[in-house]
Design goal:
homodimer, 342 residues, inorganic pyrophosphatase (n-terminal core), 12 strands, globular, nucleic acid binding (chains A, B), DDH_dom (chains A, B)
Chain lengths: 342, 342
């Protein structure tokens, strides 16, 4: 399959590169890196990167980040490119509105071929050409392999992009790791990556207000034991906790912070000993509450989010409830108790 | 020098291994790993690991951790071993009370030879044999090199120890990194290390009460701008902040937490954008306040701690003030303002 993909990349002339909604470090970095590699192959000015959502502030330090365009109005006509390359998506729906552009069976215009490059376990092989490497830490790791196959040497900018994709998708080298990943990282550092520069941008860039907001939210942090019978059924040991916390509009006002400032909170809570399932509720308006669910191990919080019309993955999902925050808390706790058989 | 050290290790029969007060992941892991290697060389039962302080709870998952003894009363007589190997210490004083045991010029007993294995920039070459590798991420990385030189293959336990030393001394691979470090990590994973197991123990083991305590402490978090003139003098850009926070005895009581639970707080605060100098005050009793100082970059907080009879390093130091916590806050802020020329 790799041979076919390489051949397609070499012979086609116009490319649309896209990735999932809510773009992350890996999706953004791998898209830009791939575009730079294609340009090294001589595809200059015929490579478009487009996502439904804009690049979050935290990734704006990346080289050539302005290449990633988002406003939907800027979308080119489907006929204007031959190949759509979809990165880091289990299925085409993950690209959001972009999916309609690259998969329009009823369109009178020719629709592009699709190359699917991904590392998720549940990839649906939606492409005309599929390169799914479940052992890869990240798509950036796959793009690294691609650069080797294409015989294109990496410079500091490319290495910085790939390093960022790998560090963010492994939680700063804490999971999804293989010897291969670390060997790649060694190569990237030897190409000029300065790890301290990247980690400063990613992990030492928190607004002061975000920590003040976290302080207020922590006052609402609660925990419940997960029933032993349920833990036994899931085969995850004998201790388990459910933890959750609320962020209200008053808290934003008091600390002069914004909903984006809550971004790191869920990762802090993941550090709690024995936590298996956790959620954060964020009040958007009087009758609207956003819920973010996370789980550790085999617990499937996607099913939980689905009950409220949301979605996501087994270990990370979300939903919006049309209820005041305190009512939403009750609704979710009731659903969790039903799920776990309290 | 390496050749001499290898020769000494091979020919001596009795070893005392030690490291610094306030032991960390690297000092503990490298000590145990070195002991295991010496035993592979046939030095069974003649290798003692002893530190002034006990192993913190968080590192108790390490293989053979019970080999590390701490109570001072258990100290052997200096004459009972030929060689003292001091790991991860810039100078002999860093070993605390152990230093008197291995450096007693007025003792009638023969004092042991000292091997100094370290990676700190300011190492004072206090040993009879000094192996100071300033490029190494950690002493664990040096012990890895030693195992190669000695031709001793690593098993999963040894690899787990060295991996833990490296991950903790690089802040989960965020600083002190070279291609070599990542190549070593790749080898360690191929020897059976499961990164997820280690990071679960190190980073997903926080007591619930610790986060509740952090919430209360964050309510006291404050910031001050560092004067531009001072930043210019230190050549560290144009933006800089001083941040600090207090942990009172009432907070421990309210959240049923302990002083150990404050351990991760300072690392969270290091994430604040533009923070250059930070400190946390912890109330020990009505008239006693412990201060932990941290800095990013060239700011020397060791000098600051010295003013209050404390010590440490350029980027991490501490002191105990015999003052109530609010008075200690005023005293320290005054000293910082003097230092920075407000």
């Amino acid at each position: 399959m790799m041979k076919k993909i390489v051949s397609v990349l070499k012979h086609c002339r116009s490319f649309l590169i896209t990735s999932h909604i809510g773009p992350d470090g890996d999706s953004i970095s791998s898209q830009i890196a791939l575009a730079l590699l294609l340009e090294k192959l001589g595809k200059r000015k015929k490579v478009i990167i487009i996502n439904e959502h804009t690049v979050p502030q935290i990734y704006r330090f990346l080289p050539h980040v302005n290449r990633v365009s988002a406003p939907y109005s800027l979308l080119p006509a489907p006929s204007s490119f031959e190949i759509a390359i979809v990165l880091d998506c289990s299925n085409l729906e993950r690209t959001g509105k972009i999916s309609s552009l690259i998969s329009t069976p009823r369109s009178p215009l020719p629709t592009p071929l699709i190359i699917n490059i991904d590392h998720h376990l549940d990839n649906s092989f939606f492409g005309d050409f599929n390169w799914v490497d479940k052992k890869a830490s990240s798509v950036s790791e796959q793009i690294f392999s691609l650069s080797k196959i294409l015989g294109l040497p990496l410079n500091k900018k490319l290495a910085t992009l790939l390093y960022t994709g790998i560090i963010t998708d492994t939680g700063s080298f804490q999971y999804h790791l293989s010897p291969t990943t670390h060997k790649i990282i060694a190569t990237l550092i030897s190409k000029g990556v300065v790890p301290e520069e990247i980690t400063k941008n990613l992990y030492q860039n928190l607004p002061f207000a975000s920590l003040k907001l976290f302080g207020l939210a922590l006052a609402t942090l609660k925990e419940n034991k997960v029933p032993t019978a349920f833990l036994r059924k899931q085969e995850v040991g004998k201790d388990g906790k459910l933890c959750w916390m609320k962020v209200t509009r008053e808290m934003y006002q008091e600390t002069k912070s914004f909903i984006e400032d809550t971004e790191p909170f869920i990762d802090y809570l993941r550090q709690i000993k024995d936590v298996k399932v956790l959620f954060i509720l964020k009040e958007s308006s009087e009758n609207k509450t956003k819920a973010s669910f996370r789980s550790i191990g085999k617990f499937d919080v996607q099913k939980l989010a689905k009950k409220f019309g949301g979605g996501g993955h087994r270990n990370a999902s979300g939903a919006t409830l049309n209820e005041p925050i305190d009512q939403a808390e009750k609704t979710i706790l009731k659903a969790i108790k039903l799920w776990m058989g309290y």
